[in-house]
Write a structure and sequence with these properties.
Elements (H helix, E strand, L loop, with lengths): L15 H36 L2 H26 L6 H25 L8 H12 L3 H19 L4 H51 L9 H14 L3 E9 L1 H8 L1 H15 L8 E6 L2 E7 L4 H15 L3 E3 L2 E3 L2 E9 L6 H18 L4 E3 L5 H16 L2 H4 E10 L4 E13 L3 E3 L1 H11 L2 H16 L7 E5 L2 H4 L2 H14 L6 E6 H5 L2 H13 L3 E7 L5 H7 L4 E4 L1 H6 L4 H16 L3 E5 L4 H8 L5 E3 L9 H25 L1
Length: 638
């Protein structure tokens, strides 16, 4: 950055800001002079009363007293808080000079006392020091010394030459002193203005996102605080990009940054309508929509931007596509503080991403209880001793063909000292929204590996991964690191993923699944059939197992169509060499109907509810005893 040094007035035009600074700098010079000068002219008025009479007394007293009163008025005027403009200060300075000038000239015109000619020299120096501008200084000094020259011209030649020499010397001295003073003041002003300019630029940089140039988190929250303090209605929204992380991982951060900037450009078109867009981190943004905008208008405006942001981007001749989801809340209808509004908008965003992807969701006050509960859960997830509070239950996956349990699914549970027992549907959802899901996954996976180490070698563990888990390569590698440390065979570990987790970022999910499978782990697609594109994932993803959603199983006793669908999926999995689990088998009647379909694996209350590690080991031990007895009976029979 090339910063020019401060320059004086002759090299730098005085813009409005600089003029204002000059005026403010000269006020402290003038004010201390005015009160003593006022007192002096009050004394002069008293002196006239002692030495003058008649018309002269009246004239001199009027001039000196008017000067004293004017100086007092000028002092009060300069004492008023606020900024005084330079032209106004020039007028005050000129009037001050003229009052002093007329006091001296009026006296000399009547009493031409030669010894008082030297007063013009004093006036010249006072005028030079107190002049806020060069033109005021030149005019005032010229007037004082010119009048000295005029009075001295009536004197003898030798005295006139002496006074002329004094006038010239005074002129040079006064102008030099004024120039030095003015130069020092201007340098100080320029340095301060430069510092102010750099401060403004630094503030702008501090308030701007370095990548996109839009307001950053600090600036956005300051603006929200200000709008809340002013009690003006506005909408606060949070939105982020769907599928951005996968593009960032696959094509690199440079391409990801360019895509992010392009998406921001499209989103920022709302700014023309008075909307503020700011980036608060990663691919997450905040929108502030001021004014009395109706819900319908807001939805229309936001969803039009979402559609615009979802149009493919061409970055380095590569066509890239991302979506967007948004959550909005309103001040003061749903929230009254910045923190409350942010929590509500974030809650609405999570609802949009989990249930209404690609849409704008508005926070409903009816959800306050749910949100407060979620906040309490989030707080305990951050502050609690999760290593002790979290635990696993295990539900068996039974093979009717082999008549034994082949694996257990690990099910997360949480017993909080403050909240009591919290359901997994609650705390896992909150952990995903707050970004702490990987902490939970890591703790639970370590507990699962410790339990797996106590099981027979032919029994495996099925463990669930969330969307955030499966989209983070570093985290996936950390799980593989835990497996290596445990010295367990990766083939005994199966990771379950849901369609929801996959569809949020298919490219990244596929890459992460490939990493897991290449390490020897198995992959299962959970809740198969519950989504609109489940069959497509059989072709797109490297899977080992499919778990048919329990909603089909529950309809099997009552719907021939459901039976045909389940039968078809079982047959398809068999042809694709995929293992198939029927979830939610709870009764003998359901099992009787399913037996004709020749199911591969069964998971449900019929063959075991979620159980503790001790109960799982006991079940496996009983299974080994039963197998040994059966083998012994077969040998005896043979």
């Amino acid at each position: 950055m090339n910063i020019a040094p401060p320059v004086d007035q002759r090299r730098k035009p005085e813009d409005a800001t600089r003029q204002q600074a000059i005026a403010q700098s000269y006020v402290p010079i003038l004010r201390p002079i005015l009160i003593p000068a006022c007192a002096y002219y009050v004394f002069v008025t008293w002196e006239h009363s002692q030495t003058q009479t008649g018309a002269l007394l009246a004239m001199y007293s009027f001039i000196s007293m008017t000067t004293a009163v004017s100086f007092y008025f000028f002092h009060r005027l300069l004492s008023v808080k606020g900024k005084i403009e330079l032209p106004r200060l020039e007028v005050i300075t000129l009037m001050m000079h003229l009052f002093m000038y007329f006091n001296l000239v009026s006296y000399l015109l009547v009493y031409n006392v030669q010894t008082r000619y030297i007063y013009f020299v004093v006036l010249a120096f006072i005028f030079a020091i107190t002049s806020a501008t060069t033109r005021t200084m030149l005019a005032s000094v010229s007037l004082a010394l010119g009048t000295l020259y005029w009075f001295a011209s009536s004197l003898p030649a030798d005295l006139f030459a002496e006074y002329a020499s004094i006038a010239v010397a005074t002129a040079f001295a006064a102008i030099s002193i004024a120039g030095l003073l003015r130069r020092a003041i201007l340098r100080q002003i320029d340095a301060r203005l430069l510092a102010d300019e750099l401060t403004v630029k630094a503030r702008a940089l501090a308030d701007s996102d370095m990548l996109t140039g839009i307001p950053n988190r600090r600036a956005i929250f300051e603006q929200i605080d200000l709008m809340v303090a002013r009690r003006k209605p506005f909408w606060l929204g949070i939105f982020d990009l769907d599928g951005f992380k996968g593009i960032n991982d696959v094509y690199g951060h440079v391409t990801g940054d360019r895509l992010l900037c392009a998406a921001v450009d499209r989103a920022s078109e709302m700014v023309s309508a008075g909307v503020t867009i700011g980036r608060i981190g990663g691919d997450e943004f905040v929108a502030i929509v001021p004014g009395d905008v109706t819900e319908a208008e807001l939805r229309q405006r936001v969803e039009s931007r979402i559609r615009a942001m979802s149009v493919p981007y061409i970055i380095d001749q590569i066509e890239l596509t991302v979506g967007a989801s948004a959550g909005f809340t309103h001040f003061p209808d749903t929230g009254l503080s910045t923190g409350q509004l942010y929590e509500q908008a974030d809650f609405a965003l999570y609802k949009a991403k989990s249930q209404f992807r690609g849409q704008c969701v508005l926070f409903d006050t009816a959800e306050n209880t749910e949100m407060k509960q979620a906040i309490a859960i989030e707080r305990e997830l951050r502050e609690g001793n999760l290593a002790e509070e979290l635990y696993l239950l295990f539900q068996p996956q039974y093979s009717p063909g082999e008549n034994r349990v082949l694996s257990f699914e690990a099910l997360a549970r949480w017993q909080s000292p403050k909240l009591g027992r919290v359901g997994p549907d609650q705390f896992i959802r909150v952990a995903e929204r707050s970004g702490s899901i990987q902490k939970l996954t890591s703790i639970l996976f370590q507990k699962g590996l410790a339990e797996l180490a106590t099981w027979p070698q032919d029994v495996s563990l099925s463990f669930n991964l969330s969307a955030r888990d499966i989209s983070d390569q570093a985290f996936i590698l950390s799980l593989l690191g835990q497996i290596m440390k445990s010295e367990l065979s990766p083939s005994r570990i199966e990771f379950e993923i849901t369609e929801t987790a996959v569809m949020s970022d298919l490219v990244t999910a596929t890459n992460m699944i490939e990493i897991l499978r290449s390490s020897g782990c198995k992959i299962a697609l959970d809740d198969f059939g519950s989504g609109y594109s489940s069959f497509g994932y059989l072709d797109q993803l490297p899977l080992d197992k499919v778990k048919i959603d329990r909603s089909f199983i529950r309809r099997v006793p009552h719907s021939a169509t459901s039976r045909e669908i389940v039968s078809g999926i079982i047959s398809l999995c068999r042809k694709l060499d995929l293992r198939c689990v029927l979830e939610g088998v709870e009764t003998e009647d359901e099992m009787t109907l399913l037996e004709s379909l020749n199911p591969d694996l069964i998971q449900g209350y019929l063959y075991g509810r979620p159980m503790s590690g001790d109960d799982a080991r006991r079940m496996l031990s009983d299974q080994q005893v039963s197998a040994a007895i059966e083998a012994s009976d077969q040998l005896i029979t043979a």
